[in-house]
């Protein structure tokens, strides 16, 4: 394993270790089992890894950021569970396993998502209290709440649902993904920066997050078109099946690949001024070339 892979694994292990311990012994088994099933199903942990990486690159420590970082993973996992429901994207597989509602039923899957969303807020408030109500932790929690809500991920999903079967223009496509996927990719970058106390870097990190978010979604669309369902751990060809406008349907495959490279390069450019940026640069390149 090279240095980058080794460091990535260390970060993922710390995140997984925190996540596997968030449920209290006296919690109700039926709902906790459904929440754990999806949370511990083997996600890449990109969002918490981004939070930890920005925090460390800007002088913070991983202990300071892990809870906030993991709260974002809880929100992300809730969104996947709800997104997979029949009335949303109607998927049978996620993270290489049957989707939550296929195993636990739709009612419990809705609750598992709700449970994870609320767990995220419990973790955030605990972190705020543990740090004596510091401005940094309040700012970080606000950033996450805003990114997850109607002016972020949920808003983007609403545009997505209302666009199904329609031809949308390029601006709407970009806006939809900036919110639906981009907001929860950018938030951890901002949160890591805030917890490190580097408010002076927020403009650069905002730009990084916006560009990485779009690049990430373009790759997601390309993988849905060309990817291998075994490697992806979810069904492929869903966008086409559901007649969804994507970067591939709007721009075609070649132009989408070029765009992903362009956005990823812009992201890299915007964090060149961070001294200790080697891991972040490698992570950005890895996300561009990912196969799952
Ligand atoms: C409130 C009922 C209700 C539903 C909300 C908000 C929402 C549904 C869905 C969010 C939209 C969504 C799921 C966007 C997809 C983002 C995306 C590219 C997910 C894949 O992320 P990865 O590749 O996955 O990081 P892993 O499994 O590795 O974590």
> Per the principal axes of the C-alpha atoms, what is the gross shape?
globular
Count of DSSP H/I helices: 15
Query: Helix- and strand-based class?
Result: mainly alpha
Bound molecules: geranylgeranyl diphosphate
Strand content: under 5%
* Terminal-residue CA separation: 19 Å
State the helical fraction: over 70%
Strand order, main sheet: write it out.
Answer: 1-2
How would you sum up the major sheet?
Answer: 2 strands, antiparallel
What is shown here, in short?
Helix content is 72%, strand content 1%. The radius of gyration is 18 Å and the shape is globular. The chain has helices spanning 3-20, 29-39, 46-57, 62-83, 100-104, 106-130, 135-148, 153-163, 170-195, 202-226, 229-232, 238-241, 247-251, 253-270, 278-288, and strands spanning 93-94, 97-98.
Quick tags:
two-stranded antiparallel ribbon, binds geranylgeranyl diphosphate, mainly alpha, 292 residues
